[in-house]
Design a protein that fits this description.
The chain has about 625 residues and is α/β, with parallel strands linked by helices. Helix content is about 40%, strand content about 15%. A seven-stranded mixed β-sheet has the order 18-19-17-16-21-24-25. Strands 5-8-11-1-12 form a five-stranded parallel β-sheet, sandwiched between helices.
């Protein structure tokens, strides 16, 4: 293959294609799963042996797709229909009958036809009887009494003769015409939808009542018989539902009863209904906290637990898989044009950006698929034959997340009210950087002020939001360094730390170097260059450690008009900013707090402080443990 543009060839992993139309999309769902090789292997084994699976991980990484694929992989067993019949001995205990798939409808239709014939025959008899009585009374001169007698007979026959419909079985679960095992998504299902229910009957007597078996409704566990039951966010199920689900897993059958105690359906309980399903439970890591211990134990003991990857290595092979993913999304949508080479290359660049990790591609493919569809919609609206890179770039500006939109509006509001400074130098004020959500950055000004303490015993830490206790520990940890470098006892000071423009605090540790710089500046009276922003964590020895979201933070700083950004050196490979920002900002990688101060402080006084810190670096333990700068709500 000729390589006219090696760089672009590499973006596609060496594929020589004109558009995604040249890519063959696998027919089986399991072959369409991208980057989850371990999960795919587990699902194949679980399907072959009929084992339960629990998948945990970031949303949008393919959990539901794997569950659907598992239904295709299940051994071809004979699917079954479930019929429910009236029980003449106990109407509140309907009987269950299992028949091969497709037979249930035949049986139900046959009973309906037979009941229709009997009903017609009975109605004909009643009509002839009534007409006979009326005719006889007319000839005997007692027409009024004849009519009364005819009406009474008709009412009595309706009241005391059994309805023909009561003998018609209800098709509770139908698998007619299905070639593969059923796949049932019971995510968010309430108890009745999950376990089955019996509808309330407002007319419970007088010949107007509905037979109990006709009010029974199957649950998701019964519809998934011989197939797959998928439940995402399983920890959101009530603990009682989880307990009943465990019973169904163990017994492989579960009787249906009314779920509401106030309903007449609570009096009805069927015979056990088969529910031999494979359960695929899913959720985030916090799902483990809300799971019934016995339910999780059942999955662990009789199945597999899988943690889904959210990134894969950026290799030629994996880039080829992403190209196939784009082709799959286009084929699955069916309404958008295929992507040309330039559009595919732009999607792969975005996959690198969204990974947030050097040498990796994102596996949050649901979000990436959203970008594919928006770009395709734009191309479709322009009546383009192919989706191009220009359409993808337009889509990136249109299909911004809510967090990105909030961050952009917040930036404009902060500019209007001058809540952050981007020129000159100020003491105790630093431009920190934060992430909002997963794909947007924001400038987060941090101000530190030091005043004499009002207490003779100890100083106090006064901080905004949730930073109070953690910020206090951080400043106390740095107090030893302050005393060695300045001779000042920080316990005799009150340290005020303010995160400007936040209401509910921050979390994580990426503001550590910002806090340290602001506090040292306030104590020493050394100004900070306001054209500099920074992000990074600190080790106990003053080493600057990597943080997340550096690309979005740098772009936020550039958008705010800041000229220089300090980031951990180990994050340098993670930086994949858009071309429009590359000439707007200077990126300075650092490895320790001395370098942070070197690039952020101004004035001749900083040299003495930095020299002292370097001398003490080998023996001073510096620990700034501040939560990640991720505002929950920003002004």
């Amino acid at each position: 293959m000729e390589k006219n543009d090696l760089k672009n060839q590499d973006l596609l992993g060496g594929l020589d294609i004109a558009s995604t139309k040249d890519i063959e999309v696998p027919k089986q769902l399991i072959e369409q799963v991208i980057g989850q090789e371990h999960a795919v292997e587990v699902v194949k084994k679980a399907a072959n042996q009929r084992r339960h699976v629990m998948m945990l991980g970031t949303p949008g990484t393919g959990k539901s797709m794997l569950a659907k694929a598992m239904a295709e992989l299940l051994p071809k067993e004979e699917l079954q229909d479930v019929l429910i019949y009236h029980n003449p001995e106990d109407a509140n205990n309907p009987k269950i009958r299992i028949v091969p798939a497709g037979k249930g409808k035949e049986i139900s239709d046959a009973h309906k036809l037979e009941a229709q014939k009997r009903t017609q025959a009975r109605n004909m008899f009643v009509m002839l009887l009534v007409l006979g009585i009326v005719a006889y009374s007319f000839y005997t001169g007692a027409l009024l009494w004849g009519i009364i007698a005819a009406v009474l007979i008709a009412i009595m026959m309706r009241q005391f003769m059994p309805k023909e419909t009561i003998f018609i079985p209800k098709l509770l679960v139908s698998n007619a015409g299905k070639d593969v095992a059923p796949y049932i998504d019971a995510t968010g299902a309430h108890a009745g939808a999950l376990l089955g229910d019996v509808r309330h009957d407002p007319f419970q007597s007088g010949g107007l009542e509905t037979p109990a078996h006709d009010r029974v409704e199957s649950g998701a566990i019964h519809k998934a018989h011989k197939g797959v039951l998928f439940i995402d966010e399983i920890n959101t199920l009530r603990i009682e539902s989880q307990q009943n689900l465990l019973t169904a897993l163990q017994e492989k059958e579960f009787a249906i009863t009314g779920q509401s105690e106030r309903s007449s359906g609570a009096m009805v309980k069927t015979d056990a209904v088969p529910c031999d399903f494979i359960m695929v439970a899913a959720g985030n890591l916090d799902a483990l906290k809300g799971m019934h211990p016995a339910l999780r134990s059942r999955i662990k003991g009789y199945g597999y637990e899988v943690y889904m990857s959210d990134t894969i290595e950026d290799t030629a092979e994996n880039r080829q898989k992403l190209v196939r993913f784009i082709a799959q999304e286009v084929a699955r949508d069916g309404k958008i044009p295929h992507f040309d080479r330039s559009a595919v290359e732009e999607i792969i660049r975005e996959a690198r950006r969204r990974a947030g990790r050097k040498g990796h591609l994102t596996l949050k493919l649901r979000d990436l698929g959203g970008l594919v569809r928006v770009a395709g919609d734009i191309a479709h609206g322009e009546k383009a034959l192919l989706t191009t890179a220009m359409h993808v770039l337009k889509a990136k500006s249109i299909a911004r997340s809510v967090e990105q939109q909030v961050a952009y509006q917040s930036l404009e509001r902060r500019k209007d009210y001058k809540l952050f400074v981007k020129e000159g130098a100020q003491v105790g004020r630093v431009n920190g950087l934060a992430v909002m959500g997963e794909d947007s950055g924001i400038v987060l000004p941090i101000i530190a002020e030091v005043t004499p303490t009002q207490s003779r015993s100890e100083g106090h830490i006064i901080a905004t939001g949730m930073l109070k206790s953690i910020a206090k520990e951080a400043v106390q940890n740095v107090s030893a360094l302050i005393k060695k470098t300045t001779g000042k006892d920080i316990s005799a000071m009150d340290v005020h730390i303010q995160f400007v423009g936040t209401y509910e605090g921050v979390e994580g540790d990426s503001a550590s170097i910002s806090i340290a710089t602001a506090v040292l500046s306030a104590i020493q009276g050394i100004p900070i260059d306001q054209s500099v922003a920074m992000t990074g964590s600190l080790s106990v020895r003053g080493d600057v450690l990597p943080v997340g979201g550096v690309t979005y933070k740098i772009e936020a700083a550039a958008r705010a008009g800041i000229k220089t950004v300090i980031i951990p050196k180990s994050n340098l490979g993670d930086v994949l900013i858009e071309d429009e920002f590359k000439d707007m900002i200077k990126i300075v990688p650092v490895t320790d707090i001395e370098e942070v101060l070197e690039y952020s402080l101004v004035g001749v006084e900083k040299e003495g402080l930095i020299a002292t810190l370097k001398k003490l670096a080998s023996r001073t333990k510096l620990n700034i443990a501040i939560p990640d700068s991720r505002p929950v709500a920003a002004l």
